[in-house]
Each structure stands twice: as C-alpha cells, then as structure tokens.
C-alpha cells in the first residue's frame, strides 16, 4: 500500500529521472533469479543525489510516525537499505540497527547489528520489494531478537501478488513511497513509454516468472 498518491507520483518521477528505475520492454534485463524483466530498479542510486535522498528521508519519517507512531528503533535491511534507513533514523532522532541476510560466521555471530533491547518497537526500512522473501527474513530475525516489529516501509514495490500474500501471512503491514502501477501511470503521462509498451509492462507484472520464456 502506498502512503499517498502525490508522494507515489513524485517518487516515481524522481526514480525515473536519475535512472534508478529503467524501463526497456524491447531489450529486457535478466535478474539474478533468472527472470527476464522489462524493468530494472536500483534505489541505492538515490543516495548519490542529496535533494532526492532528503525527499525520501523526510517522506519516510513523517509517514512512519503517521502510520505507526514513533518507534523506538529504525532497522535497515542490508545492504540496500542501510544508507536510507540510517538517514531516516537520524532525521527522527532514533537509534538505528541493520539486519544481515544471515548471521555472521565469526565473532558474536550477529544477524542484527546494533543495540536492540527486547520489547523495543521497530519499523523496518527497505529499498525495494519484489517477492518480499528477503525482507521478511529480516523481520523474522528482528522478532527472534525480541523486537516488536510495527511494520515495514519501502521506496518501491513491484506489486506482485505473491508479495502481498507473503506479507499477509507474516502479519507485517507494508507501506511504500511508490509502486509499479503508479510508475506506469506516470511513465505514460510523461511519455517515458508508449501505451503499447505499458501493455507489455503490465503483462510482465501479471506473471514475471513466465514472461519472456520461450516455449
């Protein structure tokens, strides 16, 4: 669920402007999963643009407090959301921790890095939601560490049905600054893509695993 339409459109436009999101239906990208995709998203690029990262930081901060109340701690999902998560924590005057994909193999073997009391309320910051699996592993690690996870916020979501189902099963409320549908609406209106290309992008979103697979 997006925070609001105005923020969703503004975020989508900023991501397109700096090529954090690239749309290329004619020459699709290949994801690490092996999926063929007409879209590629790298929200880490936002950190290199002060005005954009400040916009994201401030939108996250005000909407986190509006939706969840002020948490005790902000948690970033490694590695993509460490930077923006720390900016949000700084802006809100809150402690920050980050969550590794898996525990370290040495030392204290932490998966949650930073100081976290059992029972503290946490909002998790993520950069991108695809299926939601890796994001929800971070939530699981925080819960195992004794945190009260109030919800998750992300810059962008592809809006896959499987992600919605995964978050529902995990009882995690997810809010995003922008979404795939908002992106497509803006991309057509601003002529980043044609209506024909929009149809291809919608087709991919409906079944990304099968899209572009020769049979």
UniProtKB/TrEMBL annotation:
Catalytic activity: orotidine 5'-phosphate + diphosphate = orotate + 5-phospho-alpha-D-ribose 1-diphosphate
Coiled-coil residue windows: none
UniProt keyword Transmembrane helix present: yes
Residues the entry annotates as binding 5-phospho-alpha-D-ribose 1-diphosphate: 100, 104, 106, 126-134
UniProt keyword Membrane present: yes
One Gene Ontology molecular-function label: orotate phosphoribosyltransferase activity
EC number per UniProt: 2.4.2.10
Record-annotated membrane-spanning stretches: 73-99
Phosphoribosyltransferase domain ranges (all copies): 59-153
Keywords attached to this entry: Glycosyltransferase, Magnesium, Membrane, Pyrimidine biosynthesis, Transferase, Transmembrane, Transmembrane helix
CDD domains: PRTases_typeI
Class of the enzyme per the UniProt entry, highest EC level: transferase
Pathways involved: Pyrimidine metabolism; UMP biosynthesis via de novo pathway; UMP from orotate: step 1/2
Binding locations of orotate: 130
Listed cofactors: Mg(2+)
Family to which the UniProt record says this protein belongs: Belongs to the purine/pyrimidine phosphoribosyltransferase family. PyrE subfamily.
Function field: Catalyzes the transfer of a ribosyl phosphate group from 5-phosphoribose 1-diphosphate to orotate, leading to the formation of orotidine monophosphate (OMP).
Assembly, per entry: Homodimer.
NCBIfam families on file: pyrE
Name the UniProt record assigns to this protein: Orotate phosphoribosyltransferase
Organism taxonomic ancestry: Bacteria, Pseudomonadati, Bacteroidota, Flavobacteriia, Flavobacteriales
């Amino acid at each position: 669920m997006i925070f609001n339409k105005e923020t969703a459109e503004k975020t989508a436009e900023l991501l397109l402007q700096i090529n954090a999101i690239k749309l290329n239906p004619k020459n699709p990208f290949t994801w690490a999963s092996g999926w063929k995709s007409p879209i590629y998203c790298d929200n880490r690029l936002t950190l290199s643009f002060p005005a954009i990262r400040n916009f994201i930081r401030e939108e996250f901060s005000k909407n986190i407090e509006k939706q969840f109340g002020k948490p005790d701690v902000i948690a970033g999902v490694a590695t993509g959301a460490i930077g923006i998560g720390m900016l949000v924590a700084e802006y809100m005057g809150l402690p920050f921790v980050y969550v590794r994909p898996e525990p370290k193999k040495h030392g204290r073997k932490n998966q949650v890095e930073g100081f976290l009391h059992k029972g503290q309320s946490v909002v998790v910051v993520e950069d991108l939601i695809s299926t939601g699996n890796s994001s929800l592993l971070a939530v699981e690690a925080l819960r195992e560490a004794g945190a009260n996870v109030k919800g998750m916020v992300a810059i962008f979501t592809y809006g896959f049905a499987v992600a919605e189902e995964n978050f529902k099963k995990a009882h995690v409320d997810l809010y995003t600054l922008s979404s795939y549908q908002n992106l497509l609406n803006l991309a057509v209106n601003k002529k980043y893509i044609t209506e024909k290309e929009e149809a291809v992008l919608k087709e991919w979103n409906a079944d990304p695993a099968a899209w572009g697979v020769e049979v």
